[in-house]
């Protein structure tokens, strides 16, 4: 899949999360609300961090919440959550997190073209902070699609 | 040359690493195959690899290997990847 233009329900801006679990849950809920996953996928995303640690915080301020492809995934999709107050994931270098991207794919190869598009958007180092500051969905979409970073 | 990107699920974050490593290697003029894999399959997938790209969280689980284990902090920072891959493959 290439990055689909995100549905309104997949974009949650300036949300409030008490901790990293709540932040990942918001990204999971947005995937469920936009018809991409079942609630079980959200639990799988949480388990991945509980099992392996906060490695999903792959860049300063950004967590890529995801789990393996499986029956919990109804269709490929992304969600975006930005946090009004950043939360700590316990990562040695990239805390605190203010942007959580939820990623779901029905198959591993589908994931890969979506992450290539994500890489395109975020290889611009200003994009994460710009997304964290976005106050409307159109700005968030523009940043994710690499059309604008400030 | 074979390079393996390791994460917990073998997709997602290791996919980002794979995509950006391929971009950097192309710029460096290095011919290499980059494979994304999950930590449970590292012993098999990385058996013939020269370099393993991963996060600190997986270094202990990767354990003994003939490959250079390279820890990446910012998966989107192609400058960091360029420097670390240059050191590893140079």
UniProtKB/TrEMBL annotation, chain A:
InterPro entries: Ascorbate-PTS_EIIA_comp (IPR051351), PTrfase/Anion_transptr (IPR016152), PTS_EIIA_type-2_dom (IPR002178). Keywords: Cytoplasm, Kinase, Phosphoprotein, Phosphotransferase system, Sugar transport, Transferase, Transport. GO terms for biological process: phosphoenolpyruvate-dependent sugar phosphotransferase system. GO terms for molecular function: kinase activity. PROSITE patterns: PTS_EIIA_TYPE_2. Residues 4-147 form the PTS EIIA type-2 domain. GO terms for cellular component: cytoplasm. Its main location: cytoplasm. It is found in: Cytoplasm. The phosphoenolpyruvate-dependent sugar phosphotransferase system (sugar PTS), a major carbohydrate active transport system, catalyzes the phosphorylation of incoming sugar substrates concomitantly with their translocation across the cell membrane. The enzyme II UlaABC PTS system is involved in ascorbate transport. This is Ascorbate-specific PTS system EIIA component. It comes from Microcella pacifica. The lineage of its organism: Bacteria, Bacillati, Actinomycetota, Actinomycetes, Micrococcales.
TrEMBL record, chain B:
Coiled coil: none annotated. GO terms for biological process: phosphoenolpyruvate-dependent sugar phosphotransferase system. InterPro entries: PTS_EIIB-like_sf (IPR036095), PTS_EIIB_2 (IPR013011), PTS_EIIB_2/3 (IPR003501). CDD domains: PTS_IIB_ascorbate. Signal peptide: none annotated. Residues 1-90 form the PTS EIIB type-2 domain. It comes from the Bacteria. One of its GO terms (molecular function) is protein-N(PI)-phosphohistidine-sugar phosphotransferase activity. The keyword Protein biosynthesis does not apply. Keywords: Sugar transport, Transferase, Transport. This is PTS sugar transporter subunit IIB. It comes from Microcella pacifica.
